[in-house]
Amino acid sequence: MEIMTIGVYGLSEANFFGTLVKEKIDTFCDIRLRRGMRGALYAFANSTRLQNRLQDLGIRYIHFKELAPTLAIRDTQKQIDKTEKMAKRDRETLSSSFIQDYEQGILANFDLAKFMESLGADAKKVVLFCVERQPEACHRSLVAKKLATELGLTVTHLLP
Predict the structure, then answer these.
(1) Element (H or E) spanning 155, and its range?
(2) Cα gap 38→125, rounded to integer Å
(3) Could you tell me the residue range of the domain that residue 59 belongs to?
(4) Is residue 4 helix, strand or coil?
(5) How many domains, in total, are found in the chain?
(6) Is this prediction's pTM over 0.85?
(7) What is the pLDDT of residues 9-41, one digit of tens each?
(8) What is the DSSP code (8-state) at residue 27?
């Protein structure tokens, strides 16, 4: 199994889906809490449109809401971004507070066996999805790191 990550910021609809096809992704793991995007630019990443397009491409969609940061954890990063006058779309790294809260609040309770079972035996090329452009600015990098460490897998971050 190969694990990859992808964000949506910085990618057009054609580039986003083209990348998934080029990389032969067979399983798409949406790890967002809220699966909607504001504005027309990234409307293709809204849950229903996204799922329909993935189905057309023969890519299985799974929502892992339990891997999304809670509102309280998200607020930690939001406050730091506000203090640093940083827009979410421009952030390049997560704060140490967010990382600590996410690891203790989400990843400490992560059931790897259940996750793998949900993927199924036929999952070969799996992508973790959230919105941030840079993986280091998104919790998907923390999930990917956990999978790499616990399963001995290599992670590839797909970038614009």
Answers:
(1) strand 155-158
(2) 29
(3) 2-158
(4) strand
(5) 1
(6) yes
(7) 999 999 999 999 999 999 999 999 988 887 889
(8) E
